[in-house]
Amino acid sequence: MLDDIDRGLIHALRIDGRAPFSAIADVLDVSAQTISRRYRRLCADAGLRVVGLAEPQRSDRTQWLLRLTTGPRAAQDLADALARRADTSWVKLASGGTEIVAIVHTSTAAGADGHALLLHDIPRTAGITAVSAHCVLHTYLGGPTAWSGHQQALDATQQRRLRTAVAEAAPVTAASGVRADLSGADSDLLAALQRDGRASLSSLAAATGWSPATVARRLEQLRADGQLFFDVELDSTLLGVTTQALLWMAVAPAHLDHVARTLARHPELAYVAAVTGPHNLTAHALCPDPAALHRYLTERLGTLKAITTLETAPVLRTIKMAGPLPTTGKPPVRRRY
Fold this sequence. Notes:
Low-confidence stretches: 329-337
Shape: globular
Radius of gyration: 20 Å
Strand order of the largest sheet: 2-4-3-10-7-9-8-5
């Protein structure tokens, strides 16, 4: 399990994925060498990774939640194949290993060509008995809004000190009021940050062909404008999570926004989104054990009368998270959240 330094480091990365180790060390009252060593150990043993991602609603991309039902023998191979695609994230095996759930990213500007997975590739795949695709209309929790389960290590004073130190260490300041819309020129930068959100400026310069100063300036512009954010991937069992479930709910449209905002404040949930289809609200629950999930469903969700139906799909394994698979092959087996 994690100790206080590990938890503080993870919380600090949730606040700012590119926070200097020296700033994190100062807040935790340890040496920068200790933070660097802990970070490398967590990366190797706990699947820790910081990834830089474009904000979906600001990057001309549409997200779809794809649900595939197949036989248990074919499920793992199909999930692995989906995970290797550049247009997928959060590929999960659920419901006893007979269901695959994944987020598919399509281009809003590419028309039908941007929906190849939904229109052509999946229907041709043998062994699938059912397919449903749900367009993500609005994300209430997830993406730039981190799961609060990671955020219990640093107190308010430590968080304030970290943000101040990061701001003082910023190499450039984005121009006030200037929009920094993503363009094709940013593709190499985003690809590098998806692989390693903490890549050095020199590494990012080599990947883009820009100077380190230009990279630093562009990073600051994109972050200040909300076009770019950093996510933290981690084996959630080290945070005490052993039971995960995808929740599919039907809510009367007049109450959808209120229910979704209420759920977004629940610490048991890491993701809440309004989607198309008969289940118009979906969520991802992370709990210490099955009993805790039962209490959450009956004592928390059960009190929201606007939820008319609820389907619970236990998650067995996460094959892919937000970032691309490591080039060495499959992700570490302990990387589950």
